[in-house]
Amino acid sequence: MAIYHKSGKFQEYKFKKEEDFEKEVVNNYKLFFGEKTIYIDAKKKMETKIGNVIPDGFLFDLTNIDDPEFYIVEVELSKHSFYEHIFPQITKFIGFINSQNYDTLITKIWEEVQSDKILKKQFGETKELYKFIKDTMANNCNILLVIDDLKQELNEMNSVYQEWNRLVKQICIKKHINKNETMYDITPEFKDIEDTYLSEDVELQQTNEDFHLANKSDVVKCIYSKLKAKLLADNPNLIFNPQKYYISIKANNNFAFLKFRKKKIKIVINMTYDKVKALVKNNIVQELSESVQKFYFHKPNSCCAIVVSDVNYIDEVIELLKQLY
Predict the structure, then answer these.
(1) Do 24 and 16 touch, CB atoms closer than 8 A?
(2) Residue 14 DSSP one-character state
(3) How confident is the model at residue 193 (pLDDT cuts 50, 70, 90)?
(4) Which of 201, 108, 145, 158 is nearest to 21 (CA)?
(5) Which of 134, 74, 139, 142 is nearest to 110 (CA)?
(6) Closest CA to 41 of 96, 97, 119
(7) What pLDDT does 268 receive?
(8) Separation of alpha carbons 17 and 43, rounded Å
(9) CA of 54: how far to CAs of 6, 146, 273, in Å?
(10) Which terminus of the chain has a lower count of CB atoms within 10 Å, N or C?
């Protein structure tokens, strides 16, 4: 595929070696993933094995410093065999995450940051860095698969395997060149990766509450139980509708979507960011991109997200939700 620009035709560049694609990611990670991300080149700096496999890197996303994300990064070429090469790597990383045996990796990452002035500067004034790394990994540990072209098997994995769907985020990066100029085609944008769905028939992929609550902390289960009980007590006609990626709450129409993580629930609510921010004092309120807002409520400036991680602060969210039905 070619991209046409006023400066000329940009032809797609095909990486011949995986190492070249890995270098492209390392050299441009802030462009690809955002200015508030920190990338550690695991192969070059640490040679740390996870499940007897050395990942390509580790990525910290500090866009929301109150709710940071951690990713084990695997960079792959689409020409590689999925079942012989990509699948074994990713499943070993999934096994590592499920084991929750992070201590050795946390220590190695902390030691690397302490010994690298550039990395240490990027983390800035983060107090108790070891605890920050430990908490980020414990709360938001994911796998980021960076690939140069889409593979059908990736969609199949998301449809069939719960753990793959829950832990693996995928981003496709294509490079296009015209003489000395370079352009990149990135799908999806990294900032939208948590809210990007590969299947258009998402509403048809029904599950149940147990699917969403599996492997979640007791706190998350308690938050959901309390929220559901209080809303139904106020309005018994509400429908809690489990789908593949979320549980929606519906009166006449959907007015909220619940996305479950290990130690928190992200609630996408049909109310503007400014209004929610003014009313919610004890939970994190997040802005959503225009494309994500259109996915949930079909128009921009229509919604935002509330991140709930403490059952003691769920009441203010419940009172807010009551305004929507």
Answers:
(1) no
(2) P
(3) confident
(4) 145
(5) 134
(6) 119
(7) 97
(8) 16
(9) 42, 15, 41
(10) N
Task: Kindly report which listed range (2-6, 257-261, 306-310) carries the lowest average pLDDT score.
Answer: 2-6
Q: pTM surpassing 0.85? A: no
pLDDT digit string (tens) for 234-257?
A: 999 999 999 888 999 999 999 999
The DSSP annotation for 180-203 comes to TEEEEEEES-GGGGGG--S-TTGG
Using an 8 Å Cβ cutoff, are 18 and 80 in contact?
Answer: yes
Beta-bridged to residue 259, according to DSSP, are 266
Strands (E), 110-262: 141-147, 168-178, 181-187, 239-242, 247-250, 254-260
Q: Which residues, listed in sequence order, are joined to residue 206 by a DSSP beta bridge? A: 243
Residue 196 confidence class, pLDDT cut points 50, 70, 90 = low
Q: What is the dihedral of CA 205, 208, 214, 218, to 10 degrees?
A: 140
What is the dihedral sign for C-alpha 73, 78, 80, 86? positive
Angle at 261 between CA 310 and CA 170, to 5 degrees: 150
Q: What is the pLDDT of residues 115-170, one digit of tens each?
A: 999 999 998 876 689 999 999 998 889 999 999 998 888 878 877 777 787 889 99
From residue 308, alpha-carbon distances to 10, 14, 110, 251, 298 in Å are 45, 43, 28, 22, 24
Burial of 227 from C-beta contacts in 10 A (0-12 / 13-18 / 19+): buried
Q: How far apart are CA 154 and CA 152, in angstroms?
A: 5
Measuring CA to CA, how many Å separate 248 from each of 154, 194, 324?
25, 16, 13
CA-to-CA distance for 251 and 168, rounded, in angstroms? 32
Strand locations in the chain (E):
2-5, 8-13, 37-41, 57-61, 69-76, 141-147, 168-178, 181-187, 239-242, 247-250, 254-260, 265-269, 284-286, 304-308
Which residue type is seen at 225? S
Task: List, for residues 32-62, the tens digit of each pLDDT value.
Answer: 999 999 999 987 766 666 766 789 999 999 9
199 pLDDT more than 60? no
